[in-house]
Write a structure and sequence with these properties.
InterPro entries: ABC_Gly_betaine_transp_sub-bd. Residues 6-149, 168-270 form the ABC-type glycine betaine transport system substrate-binding domain. It is found in: Cell membrane. It comes from Companilactobacillus alimentarius DSM 20249. There is one protein chain. The chain is an alpha/beta fold. Helix content is 40%, strand content 21%. The protein has twelve helices and nine strands. The strands form three sheets. Strands 3, 4, 5, 8 and 9 form a five-stranded antiparallel beta sheet that branches. Strands 1-2 form a two-stranded parallel sheet. The chain has a two-stranded parallel ribbon with strand order 6-7. 43% of the residues are buried. Bound molecules: 1,1-dimethyl-prolinium.
Length: 270
């Protein structure tokens, strides 16, 4: 019943994801800035898969739910969701995903550096790969299929770059759906160039540390300017930012569109 207050119906709970995600700390800030803490709102940490399965159940029963959402992600393709307005601009307008490489990569592995620097795709291209993986295709196969389907896109990233012969290259990433997609795609492109590429998933802090200490060559998983801001400033000067590999990302609280009366974070207080 939409006339009932939202808070009591969902135990004043925002369904969140892994505690280490940048969006989780941004949401803690939002809870304070909007005074939701005074109304006993809390953020429930879980994982992307636990959150999306809770969302799935609520959605099937048209029950209310508030989640930590972001785009690009297949959740926005599978369900009709809307971001809540954020008049205090806690989450920022738009995010981009940056490619971060270790210092010295340009000199040591100029071909890899150039391809990583050229790597840029769109939310819709990334979603194509994510949807395949969500449908059960292995990330490596989904990446390879996508590269074959759209060879012109990849040709732009590798244009004029020399082939190499078995040099090793290590990429680290956080196992979010978006980064599973991007990391597998760029890893495959670099393999096709002749590199022996390993990819390793870890938490966000070790991803930044791995590039800063040169244990890894690069990561394509840096959501900025807000989501990974803490790590960007903690490790400033110890990495090279090659700029966006994807523009037009977004992070914020989201609800199903059938929650007609809830349109702004402020509405959670009512
Ligand atoms: N995310 C998806 C991540 C970045 C990618 C928004 C869940 C986060 O750190 O919150």
């Amino acid at each position: 019943n939409s006339k009932e207050k939202l808070g009591p119906q969902i135990n004043y709970t925002i369904t969140g994801i892994d505690a280490g995600a940048g969006e989780m700390s941004t949401t803690q800030t939002a809870i304070k800035k909007y005074g939701l803490d005074k109304k006993n709102w809390q953020l429930q940490p879980s994982s992307t898969s636990a959150m999306t399965s809770t969302l799935d159940k609520a959605y099937k029963n048209k029950q209310p739910i508030v989640i930590t959402g972001w785009q690009p992600h297949w959740m926005f393709k599978k369900y009709k969701l809307k971001f809540l307005k954020d008049p205090k601009n806690v989450y920022g307008e738009a995010e981009h995903i940056s490619t971060i490489v270790r210092k010295g990569l340009k000199k040591d592995k100029p071909e890899a550096y150039e391809i990583l620097d050229n790597f840029h795709w769109t939310p819709s291209q990334m979603s194509d790969v994510m949807l395949k993986v969500n449908a059960g295709v292995s990330p490596k196969k989904a990446a390879t299929d996508w590269i074959k389907k759209d060879p012109k896109v990849v040709a732009k990233w590798t244009k004029g770059v020399k082939k190499v012969h078995g040099q090793s290259l290590k990429l680290t990433y956080v196992a979010w759906d978006s980064e599973i997609a991007s990391t597998n795609v760029i890893a495959q492109v670099l393999r096709d160039q002749g590199y022996k590429v390993t990819i390793q998933s870890m938490e966000m802090q070790p991803v930044w540390a791995s590039v800063a200490t040169k244990a890894a060559d690069a990561t394509v998983s840096a959501w900025l300017p807000k989501t990974a801001a803490k790590f960007y400033s903690d490790y400033k000067g110890q990495f090279v930012d090659l700029g966006a590999n994807l523009d037009g990302a977004k992070v914020g609280l989201a609800v199903p569109t059938y929650m007609k009366n809830i349109n702004s974070i402020n509405d959670l207080k009512n």
